[in-house]
Specification:
The structure is a homodimer.
Chain A lengths: L2 E4 L8 H10 L4 E3 L4 H13 L12 E4 L2 E4 L1 H11 L7 H25 L12 H29 L12 H16 L1 H7 L4 H11 L2 H8 L21
Parallel strand pairs in A: 1-2
Antiparallel strand pairs in A: 1-3, 3-4
């Protein structure tokens, strides 16, 4: 089956978690909105379709045959066993999905470091709040979230989060490390020694042949100041 | 099977979405942490279990036999077909879960109206930010989220979100309306005329016999200033 991924064409954003899974699996897919003007028009048409019985709330969403599936973690839950990036048994699938939903929670908190007050003001208009939010994010939230994944890795019985085989959750955790390194190079550098298993996992994923090829390709959109992860010197003491 | 729900005993919080489903289904369950000191100790023991291979990140979580499932939307995804509160076919289950994940996103935004900067400061220490966040929340986000559910209801082919039978998503949307009425009585009063189908759904759910009985019981924890929904006069112009 040829999958159709619909996401904003200029940012990695939440779509990137899906792209990484499709790439690692060598899946047949089209990144629809990146296929020029027509692609973007096709995405907007689906979003605004007045007759759709099951309209997606927001990108990313995936078209798989007649199914249209929105919500990043749900797309991955659907794709997981089909791309051999998740176990097939119910308990294993639920566990992978649970971890992915925890990553989704972390993603919201990463975004909010630079826009805590509202997304309708520029960063420059909410600097003191962003500084305070970022301080607590690194003091309380990063240790809680990444410490959790460090613990899970310590108990998984293999070198991946679910054991000896890589899953879509490993790819997403790789992306989290990449993003935190982009947005907070100094803070992350200091923090990484506390999460050696997470960093080893990141490196392991980053060496997988299809991921290496993808990261070098034009399909990988560069980090920028418009995504979830943004670099502001003053937030990265 | 007797389900064990683990959640903080003094607030509705995210646990309430699970409680409503268990109550509507007349399920056999224990709200563990509300069973006195021993219950709370049992929850903390599970959270801090150093040997658990699949530790939950945070409450709520559900124990179903040997399975321990965290993440509110995932708990409901698991319980849905078992409690006859979701379809059994894959496309229907995915759709229900997609809607519930959108409600989960809304819940984060509701909480952040009163604590936009950080949860480690009191409301009184972040008033101007809370006012600004609340303004944008009602201007942009409530219309987007509740307008979406209004549209879904208009296309469902029945009087519930998934059609003619109630699902766990309907119960959660009922709780969202209850919470917004508690936290923002004036704003919500003005807004409700824009979402007649959502309000009709709320009223329909609120008349279901088991929900009526539950809402009157001591099992329903009252709204308070410690939950997701908090009332501050200055945020409710």
């Amino acid at each position: 089956m040829r999958y159709e991924l619909y996401y904003w064409p200029d940012v990695q954003g939440r779509g990137e978690f899906v792209r990484l899974a499709l790439e690692e699996a060598g899946a047949d897919y089209v990144d629809v909105a990146r296929q020029g003007k027509r692609g973007m028009a096709a995405m907007m048409k689906l979003i605004n379709d007045q007759r759709a019985k099951r309209p997606p709330f927001a990108p990313p969403f995936l078209k798989a045959g007649k199914l249209v599936i929105a919500q990043t973690a749900l797309i991955l839950h659907y794709l997981g066993p089909r791309l051999r990036l998740a176990p097939r048994d119910e308990a294993g699938r639920l566990w992978a999905h649970q971890l992915q939903l925890t990553i989704a929670d972390l993603v919201v908190e990463i975004h909010d470091t630079h826009h805590p007050v509202t997304s309708w003001l520029y960063f420059e208009e909410q600097r003191p709040a962003a500084r305070r939010r970022t301080k607590d994010f690194w003091r309380y939230r990063v240790p809680k979230f990444l410490g959790y994944f460090e613990r899970v890795l310590g108990r998984s019985g293999g070198s991946y989060l679910l054991g000896s085989r890589p899953s879509y959750v490993d790819l997403s955790l790789f992306q989290i490390v990449e993003g935190l390194r982009y947005a907070f190079p100094n803070r992350m550098k200091r923090f990484e020694r506390k999460i050696p298993r997470v960093i080893a996992l990141h490196d392991r994923v980053g060496k997988r042949p299809r991921i290496v090829a993808y990261m070098k390709s034009k399909r990988r959109i560069p980090f920028s100041q418009w995504g979830i992860y943004r670099y502001f010197k003053e937030l990265d003491r």
